[in-house]
Records
---
Amino acid sequence: MKKEIYTISVYTENNLGLLNRIATLFIKRHINIESLTVSSTEIDNVSRFIIVAFITEDQVKKIIGQIEKQVDVIKAYYHTNEESIYIQSALFKVKSSLLFDERQIQNIIKKSNSQIVTVSREFFVIEKSGRKEEIDKLYNELAPFGIMQFVRSGRISVTKEEMKISEILKKQLN
Amino acid sequence: MNTETVKIKQGKTKTTQRISGSEAIIKCLLAEGVDVLYGYPGGAIMPVYDELYKYQDKIHHVLTRHEQGAIHAAQGYARVSGKAGVAIATSGPGATNLITGIADAQIDSTPVVCITGQVSSHLLGSDAFQETDIVSISTPVTKWNYQITKSSEIPEILAKAFYIAKSGRPGPVLIDITKDAQFGEFDFEYKKCEKIRSYNPVPKMDMAQVKAAAELINKAKKPFIVLGQGVILANAEEELKSLVEKADIPAASTLLGLSALPTEHELNMGMVGMHGHYAPNVLTNDCDVLIAIGMRFDDRVTGNLETYAKQAKVIHFDIDPSEIDKNVKTDVAVLGTVKETLSALIPLINPNKNEEWHKKFKDLHQIEHEEVIHPEINPTKEKLTMGEVINAINKETNGEAIIVSDVGQNQMFASRYADFKQSKSVVTSGGLGTMGFSLPASIGAKMGAPEREVVAIIGDGGFQMTIQELGTILQTKVPVKMVVLNNEFLGMVRQWQELFFDKRYASTVMTNPNFIKIVEGYGIQAKRVTKRENLSNAVSEMIASNEPYFLEVIVEKEGNVFPMIPSGATVSDVRLK
Ligand SMILES: Cc1ncc(C[n+]2csc(CCOP(=O)(O)OP(=O)(O)O)c2C)c(N)n1
């Protein structure tokens, strides 16, 4: 079966230890997590995990079943890239002198739709949000000039269809 | 806040009591109807043991000789009583010693609540004496776990623990309680847990699926049921029997489903799986509708999945949605407790007769009987066989005993040859295959069903894995009957070495101690049988005894369990020799 990038969204109670519990489900199946973001949601005490993995549809279905089975998990979904709107962010730290000596850099920043978030005497920081490929592209363009530091966040995404988490919570209490 | 201020603030007499966390733990256990628990004391759990001392007339603590013994005893208790078993241990090594049993309970869906002591909260993460991160360690093998660091959390968390362990598909829960939370005082009030908003233990039954299942069953010419422990966990034995009889469907059981349908029932075709019966294994690949009820298509049941029941439409009744399509693709999945779903199904089923189909089972069974069963029970060789020992036990117990088998050949012979008249008569480690399970589990089983005869069937290898629990039997006088089938080998592994490794018996030969002396050292009656003519008397004396009794039977050293589906082979390639 064909492997693909899947985005798994998990809505959970905001409980200690749940990150570990969910991670073990991947480890048990020898699946490598590509990226992971945990954050609060629009609902009180409900957290959202966004996990990206390169797996088959059969694997993703089974892992969703195992995730949903966990007591503190409210609901889990999986989506392909087509079914969700997703981005990640990256920060590039570059020597300040480059900004003045290498005119091209300014062009690269402008063209890539990224922003300078900080400038100090030693370095400046460029922020770029977008698809993974866009960030890769910017990285490749900046790399020849020397990148002092590079960080990339996990994916965050919202789905095209509606996720009715509040309703699910209400229903399970009645 | 003390009791007085509660009254003033709420303006009414609310009866909360100000007590310590450790006393609260005991009160929670009592509120959950716990009358016995199994454990082992140590520093981080001492406040709770102090309360156990004070409450000893209300709650019976059984001191096992190892924490693994405690958890297996709790499992045995749970499996026969349908209630949650409780095990308790100290932090560090006490807690880690529980892990094997917790993993066993997880894979075999057994409700147990484990309580472990933990170092004081201010020491967490400091590598304090006997600190282990048992919450992380137990995460992959528990249904739920939680660390309590404040005494006021105790009632709510313990209520959740029992609810989660028992509801839906049961499983083990571990609650780790820091020592300061055991000492801390608070206003105690207990409320049972009945709901958790993120947790949906029983999926809603879909009547359309039930109808679809009924349609397939009504059209089937060669229907076949494989039943699992889900039937027993849901108390759906009667519903199962009605379905089997109404539509005249041959049924076979998984290892853990055994005894849900009486052995003698004419539609009971025995056991499926690696060492299961010949007919149900072969005909799995011949049936037109395979009806799986409360089972999970373990690889020991299915053999090679690529060739498992490919010709059949598959209907799967289960409580756990994640089991659907996990191993075998289903045509119709019916979610819910099998009691509920079978009850809904039965009225839609047309009475039926499948005589030709039954004949196939009978014919194949005849072959197995002649080639395997008869020679096993009536051996012509001098040495006793495991099968004839189990058969002798059948005769003495009338098939009414709870059989607690260990792991290996002894387990497969017990499962194949023991008769079961009533449900919950089989306690064994199925999914994990934990050697050493049987002896401590039999202690729990006897306490969970004191009115029933409990016979542990153990290999000489497995016996020595938890042999220390003889001490628990000595101290509690719990009248379990123990049968060690001594072949002086790690028999099951030796069998594989014989069949697949050219008889290279690497580390499977056992030089054993004098078991009789050891058992007698524990003050337990013990007898050894080496000859056929003494077997039935010895078994009869054992069963007649009102006390713990140990019987060692010296059996054929290189006996093999057949039939056998070699691993990786398809179910219908089951070998008779
Ligand atoms: C804890 C544990 N270790 C190892 C095994 C692997 N194993 C499975 S069966 C078996 C042999 C069991 O020997 P014995 O207890 O003498 O029983 P027999 O097969 O001879 O009846 C072994 C070693 C196991 N199941 N459990």
---
Amino acid sequence: MSAIARTNVMDLTAPAIEITDLNKYYGTFHALRSINLTVSKGEKVVVCGPSGSGKSTMIRCINQLEEHDSGAIRVFGTQLDDNLGSIDEIRREVGMVFQQFNLFPHMTVLENCTLAPMLVRKISRAEAEATAMRYLEKVRIPDQAQKFPGQLSGGQQQRVAIARALCMQPEILLFDEPTSALDPEMIAEVLDVMVTLAQEGMTMVCVTHEMGFARKVADRVIFMDKGEIIEEAPPEEFFGQPKSDRTRLFLSQVLGH
Amino acid sequence: MTGPSFLRSRAFRRVTLQAGFVAGLLLLVLAATLTARTNLATQGLTSGFDFLWKSTGWEMNFSLLPTTTADPYWWYLLMGLMNTLFMGTLGLAGASVLGLVVGLMRSGRNPAARLLGTIYIEIFRNLPLILQLFFWYAMANALPAPRASIAFGGALINARGLYLPGLMVGPGTVALAVLSGLVGLGLAIWVLTARRFNRVEPRGQRRVALLAVLAGLIGAGVFVVLGHDPADAWVTLPALQGLKIDGGFRIQPEFYALAIAITTYGAAYVGEIVRGGFKSVGRGQMEAAAALGLSSWHIFTRVRLPLAFRAMLPILINQYVWLIKATTLGIAVGFSDFFMVIASSINHSGQTFEFIGILMAGFLLINFSLAAVLNRLNRAIALKGHQTTGSA
Amino acid sequence: MTASSLPGGQSARLRRLRRDYFGSPLAVLMTLLSAAVIAWIGWFLLDWGVIRATFGADGTQETCVAHGGACWSVIAVRWRVILFGIYPYEEQWRSALACVVVGVVILLSCLPRMWSFGRLALVWVLGTVIFYTLMRGGVLGLVPVNEQQWGGLPLTLFIFVATGIIGMPLAIGLALLRRSEYPVIARVTGWIIDTIRSLPLLSILFTCAIVLPFMLPGFLIGEKLYRVLFGAALFFAAYQAEIIRGGFQGIPKGQEEAAKALGLTYWHRTFRIVLPQAFRLALPATINQFVIAFMETSLIVVVGFMELLAAGNTAFKTGEWKFAYAEVYVFIAAIYFAFVFGLSRYGAYLEARMNVGHRKD
Ligand SMILES: Nc1ncnc2c1ncn2[C@@H]1O[C@H](COP(=O)(O)OP(=O)(O)OP(=O)(O)O)[C@@H](O)[C@H]1O
Ligand SMILES: [Mg+2]
């Protein structure tokens, strides 16, 4: 799939993500309560739930932007524990797209995309730029490569952010509400890119309230509330016959207007 | 890269890095202390604070209370600290008043006044303070000799200093009178600003504040009358007697040169802070006040000034701390501030480390207490529910 | 379309001017008073400094006093002492050249295209090396000149440049330690910075000059000049570290998170993502700090060095020129003013430029 040599620790036959009995506290506040979740390679999982339910916290634990307090997280068989080496390794294979884009404002679009491959994967500039242009074409903005992020629209910025994550050629992509900061007319262009990625077989964990997107591409939808996973089902079932009252209430609020 | 795995663990790193940092610093301090001790021992110097009770044997050229060469070091240090605080207070007050004037000139609409304010700020802010101090001091020394003193309003000025007419009372009396006045003023400010009096009728509040100030002044008067020796005349006027000046109070060139330098230099900075404060007040607030029919005086005193002051205060705090530290320049012209007393003490006694320790402790104390008081004031008047504006 | 290009513009502007200058009795008073003061200062300077002044190297106290104005002869006669101190007379061309080198370094670092760590470091280190070689000599056939003989403008510039070149990396280090994720390191560094900031610079210079030799092993004591320089740099660093910290606080948290998510290491995150943005945010305050550092080089007279100000003092402390202190101080002030005013104007220009950039975003 890629020209980049993978480190040998990753076991691509193991489940992409395996979370068992995960707990996380902010001080005394119990933010995640024994979360269990397995995502296999190529699977697309959509996570939804009310504000403050711990969705961001959970996916940020996967690449250790948040440290968890107990439980185990394995990515392709590599366990995320106290070891900084395993954290570095996993961040190389797990890309992330943020609600606020978080592009580096002092670098051009192209530099944003080539920085990490050159520094982390240690590939040459020429190769990194070629890869970057390929992915910028994929997100349909190759002509903006020399601009600075501040000169792009929100939708364009988010597509650059996706391209930037792809340039590391990750096995897994995490999305934390990628369309929530966008004006309605820009949401579609970002979702289109995400659908394309899903169809190409990328493993994706996506926190979003875009239920249309969930219906279209998700293999599974997960509903969280108060730090717990309440319900976990394929989209038809999740939207058709939700089991829990809380899910039903949430769906009526999200779909109601 | 792949060593033993515990080397790459977060917990291990957290402990070793923090412990290593602290240990490294402690080691540095320890090494310095040990080296210093052996060096002092080879020079036959002893450490300890016994010298504080020995008499100094040298003269202090300016102090608020009397000093003689027989006084012990601790008394000199105390007097030096008082000189620093005195000069600092004077400089702070002068810089604030002059700075407010300059800042108002700079933020007003009158172009001529604005130009004058700008000239002032650009000159005084862009030259090193010590250069300005040297200039004032050289000028003070270039004044005519005593027999050709320049007289104005009962005062005399010459190369030996500025001679002011004064009341014939002792320094203790002056201290009590000043204290009484300050207590009255403090009470008044407290009554006007404390939250607990927010619900009192403003007019009543002002009346009580006025009363407090009056009481302070009357107290000061009473102290002066009680402290006055009936055998003496009430006032003393400076006059030429042969080749020197008799009577009055002499202010040394070192003192007023430093006071002028700190005041004028500080005012340039305060002026810029004041202008920044006024600039930060949104036009909307003033228009709203005008729309309510407030007079321009009321708009200024009730809306513009209070809002601007809140924006200025955090930056002013830094500037005030800076100005207090600037009094150490006294050593360049020979004014006995805290730092100069320390430096002379080191020269005469050789107790280098002890005095440096006292110096640092003294300035940490002054600056932390000043910053603490002002920060409290800042928090007390901060607008609730607003981001505090960041300091410079 | 400005107001003045409209037909009614001319009179509207006139009306506004009349209102600003003479709108109320208070305004009239202010205008008259300010104008009078400005006119008086202007006339005084013209009269004293030019009309009744004495120029040329042959002026003496008698001729100057007879003219009644400034006595610029003191500058004409003593300028080499003021500018170069007691540096050997025949070698003073080296001092002059060294000043030019520093000037070029400062000018180069004001060009935006030089703003990368590598380029700035290169220019400053190279500049310092050339400066030091010229001043110190002992190589390339230059006569060695001891640091104790350095003086005047080159010494002032040397202190300034060295303060920056030692102080800036120190400041970055302190700022990074202060924002460390490890609370003990962050807190202890905070204490150190706050302590240094609340001490007067003079007391730090004094400590470095007098006390440090006691505490250092013999091989580290070195020249007094370098110890004092270290003190000045430390003081600069404590202030600059807080300025950089202010810059850190202006960067959204997401920046570092995105860098982490891409797998960048701590050093890459810090030097590629965080510091460049922090420096940009802190640029106006940084320039201001450099301006202050330049003015504070003059404090070094107190610990016994012949920098510009002290050299000026010696220039008029000899009997024959004793009366001409004002002229000497005006001359020195003009040098400081040119530098400081230029640098702060440049800072204001940068700030304005950055604000314009922001609005476009
Ligand atoms: N750094 C933090 N410190 C303390 N509490 C936090 C922190 N981050 C999150 N929390 C709390 O943890 C809970 C879960 O937060 P999280 O951001 O994961 O929610 P979320 O489901 O992503 O919500 P949203 O849809 O609003 O993004 C919230 O109650 C939040 O207040
Ligand atoms: Mg969230």
